[in-house]
Amino acid sequence: ESIKVFAPATVANVACGFDIFGFAVDNPGDEIILRKKVSPGLEILKIEGDEGRLPLDPERNTACISMLAYLRHINANQGISIELKKKMPLGSGLGSSAASSVAGVYALNELLGRPLTQLELLPFAMEGERFASGTAHADNVAPSLLGGFVAIRSYDPKIDVIKIDTPAELFATIVHPQIEVNTRDARNILRKETSLKNTITQMGNVAGMVAGLMKGDYGLISRSLVDVIIEPVRAILIPGFTEVKQAAIEAGALGCSISGAGPSMFALSKDRDTAKKVGEAMQRAFAGVQIDSEIYVSGI
Ligand code: HSE
Question: What is the set of active-site residues?
Answer without folding.
Answer: 129, 183
